[in-house]
Amino acid sequence: MTQSDRPTTLIKVTRRLLLLAVFLLLAVQAIRVKRENPIVDQTRKLEATAPVPPVIHEILRRSCNDCHSNETVWPWYSRVAPVSWIVVYDVREGRSDLNFSEWGSYTIKEKGDKLDEICGRVRRDEMPDGKYTLVHRNARLTAEERSAVCAWSEQVRKALSESSPLSSMPTSSLAGIGP
Fold first, then answer.
1. Burial of 71 by CB count in 10 Å (0-12 exposed, 13-18 middle, 19+ buried)?
2. CA dihedral of 123, 139, 102, 150, whole degrees rounded to 10
3. Which of 1, 16, 41, 121 has the fewest beta carbons closer than 10 A?
């Protein structure tokens, strides 16, 4: 092989690799994953079983619900493999860890533990997940929003541990929470 043949060979190899990559990308589209939103029982949702001030509701809706509820808004890229595999996996894992649509089915201890974990993970900037905020920039939380979520979760956890009925705890008592 001469020096002048090397660029031609390199171009041919690069073209073949690109064609192979395109073929593989098209072929994996045949491997579908099931994207689903189970039916939501409105009486079991977080908002139906615990006081959630509007500012907290908006933060959870914007930054948490796509992975932690049965009301996922599936974006277009959740239909394109292999990204779809990651999205579906993350949603399944998120729902199994914490599902705001199933909040009413958790025991008081589970709710308390989950509220502690919500605050801890938000405070440590582990949630929302970095992959999610990379695409959904509006899901990023400010320091004030992190503080508001922690204050809310602590207040609800405290009410749970005191075994006071949450339905009697007015949302107005949470009025100071939020940016």
1. middle
2. 20
3. 1
Distance CA 112, CA 159 (A): 9
Query: What sign does the dihedral 56-58-63-68 (CA atoms) show?
Result: positive
Distance CA 153, CA 161 (A): 12
CA distance 44 to 72: 16
CA distance 34 to 41: 21
Q: What is the pLDDT of residues 26-78, one digit of tens each?
A: 767 777 788 899 999 999 999 999 999 999 999 999 999 999 999 999 999 99
Q: Rounded CA gap, 109 and 111, in Å? A: 5
Residues in the chain, total: 179
